[in-house]
Specification:
The complex is a heterodimer of chains A (99) and B (395). By secondary structure, chain A is of the alpha+beta class. Chain A has one domain: Beta-grasp domain (Ubiquitin-like (UB roll), Roll), CATH 3.10.20.30. Helix content of chain A is 22%, strand content 21%. Chain A has three helices and five strands; from the N terminus they run E-H-E-H-E-E-H-E. In chain A, strand 3 and strand 4 form a beta hairpin. With 395 residues, chain B is an all-beta fold. Helices cover 1% and strands 36% of the residues of chain B. Chain B has one helix and 29 strands. Chain B is globular. The chains are: A alpha+beta (99), B mainly beta (395). Chains A and B meet through helix 1 and helix 2 of A and strand 6 of B.
């Protein structure tokens, strides 16, 4: 599956990419499988999105899919079909107090 | 031809300021890593093109950057430019930002809590690297002082980091507590005459020394006093802000304590106060002249809740007697309406003759003196708040 991921500006800079990242992710497409594919292709991002040891999402980042906040959903929960098909991107967003 | 490179870490990126040995005309290169907090930026003393940066963010955590060409190009160690980012087996390469406390029963101690502000115990949590100290002998070996306080070391150029657990686990760790800025290990001094000896300092735990390369440590805080520690015999708990030494005389240490400027003549076994006639003995940095081991510099700050110079006058104070007798250095520095701070890692000296002295302010100015502090000029005035200043003297 070709998955589209949108990174925040500073992580795009670290990874040396412009715009969206496209990843090959085997089903089922979940937050965990996307992040593992992302970190596999861009190891410089390890530790910047989720903790090295606990693998928990860093507290000031949020995950969105199809205009919904998935940050508090289980990491192995299947993401919407639109993300799994590549129709919609998976968004990694820096949390800004006040929105 | 000689020259100087000033490595500046700021709240929003890193800058490289460069000049020839006259130190009159400066170039400003940066920002590198724009938008990130650069807690520290330092070069190897034996390979001046090898630079290390602690790049950090509350959102994205800790990054270590390295340059092998004096800052022209950068990479996170483990993933050099142009090389595949994964091994042939598909595994990701080095994790240069992985700082994991050693709690193993074999080499570490399962120390999991330290004292919180309210006196309760609090879990140890890695937050960032405050200070990077490259080895005096090997450009691939670097020490890292981190928050929550611990000492790490890399021996592969920053690709991987291992804790030296004897410091955090030597026995007093549960009594360490954070200072106002967090519980960071901010000072790492390597003894050039004895590679087994290292000094560290932690806010607010105090100063520590190892004589066996980091295996075992002991607190060296005898003689320090703190209004926040009613116990006059407290072994730890002191908010040491900075320690400095002259490489020719590494048993003599100078300390800017939270309040008080202190001196030790026995490698930290005992301390005595040398604040003398300073207008206030609160401050952050302390430095030693490159050629005069008894000449030291401090930046008096009004108080621990008023982080600006007294009377709005930015004055560096110099003692040529190893403390107690101080003179104000004001020529070229603002003497009215100045309310900036100079942070603990934001002062450094070069080793040219006469000695150059440099410091950066939270107002974004970096000042330089090419005459041992007699007069000052700003190299730049409008950088983001300066967190650290280091100097490389180039031959």
């Amino acid at each position: 599956m070709k998955i589209r991921v949108v990174l925040p500006y500073h992580l795009r800079t670290l990874a040396g990419v412009n715009g969206e990242v496209t990843l090959e992710v085997a089903p089922p497409v979940t937050q965990r499988s996307i992040l593992e594919a992302l970190e596999g292709c861009y190891p410089m991002l390890r530790g910047t999105i989720r903790d090295h040891v606990t693998q928990l999402r860093r507290p000031m980042l949020r995950f969105f899919a199809c205009e919904e906040d998935w940050s508090l959903e289980p990491p192995d929960a299947p993401l919407p079909d639109a993300v799994a098909s590549g129709a919609e991107p998976f968004l990694i967003v820096g949390a800004i107090a006040g929105g | 031809m000689s020259g100087v490179r000033v490595l500046v870490g700021t709240r929003k990126g890193a800058f490289i300021l460069a000049a020839d040995g006259k130190r009159k005309e400066w170039s400003v290169n940066g920002p590198h890593f724009g938008g990130w907090e650069i807690y520290h930026f330092k070069g190897s003393p034996i390979d001046p093109k090898r630079l290390y940066v602690s790049q950090t963010s509350g959102w994205f955590g800790q990054i270590i950057q390295r340059s092998d060409d004096a800052g022209k190009t950068w990479h996170q160690p483990g993933t050099p430019p142009g090389e595949p980012t994964t091994t042939p087996e598909g595994f990701p390469k080095g994790e240069s930002n992985k700082f994991v406390y050693d709690t193993s029963p074999e080499t570490g101690k399962p120390l999991t809590t330290h004292q919180w502000y309210d006196g309760t115990q609090h879990p140890w949590e890695f937050k960032r690297v405050w200070h990077l100290e490259p080895s005096l002998k090997d450009p691939d070996t670097v020490y890292a002082g981190v928050e929550d306080a611990a000492l790490f070391r890399t021996t592969d150029g920053g690709k991987t980091w291992q804790e030296l657990p004897g410091l955090r686990g030597h026995g007093s760790g549960s009594k360490w507590s954070p200072g106002a800025g967090g519980m960071g290990l901010h000072t790492i001094l390597l003894d050039p005459g004895n590679l087994q000896r290292i000094f560290t300092a932690i806010s607010a735990a105090g100063a520590f020394r190892t004589d066996d390369g980091g295996e075992t440590w002991k607190p060296i805080n005898r003689g320090l006093k703190s209004q926040y520690l009613p116990d006059p015999k407290a072994e730890v708990g002191f908010c040491v802000h900075r320690i400095a030494l002259h490489p020719s005389r590494p048993k003599v240490l100078f300390m800017q304590l939270h309040w008080d400027v202190m001196r030790s003549d026995d490698a930290g076994d005992s301390w005595r106060e040398v604040s003398g006639n300073l207008p206030t003995d609160f401050g952050f940095p302390i430095e030693v002249h490159a050629h005069e081991p008894e000449t030291i510099y401090v930046v008096p700050i009004k108080s621990d809740s008023e982080h600006y110079p007294p009377e709005g006058k930015l004055r560096i104070y110099r003692s040529r007697t190893g403390g107690n007798e101080w003179e104000a250095l004001t020529k070229g520095l603002p003497q009215s309406d100045c309310y900036v701070n100079v942070l603990r890692d934001a002062m450094a000296v070069d080793s040219l003759d006469p000695c150059g002295v440099y410091f950066g302010t939270t107002g974004g100015q970096v000042y330089a003196s090419a005459d041992s502090g007699d007069s000052w000029k700003p190299i730049v005035r409008d950088l983001p708040a300066v967190l650290s200043v280091e100097v490389q003297t180039l031959s």
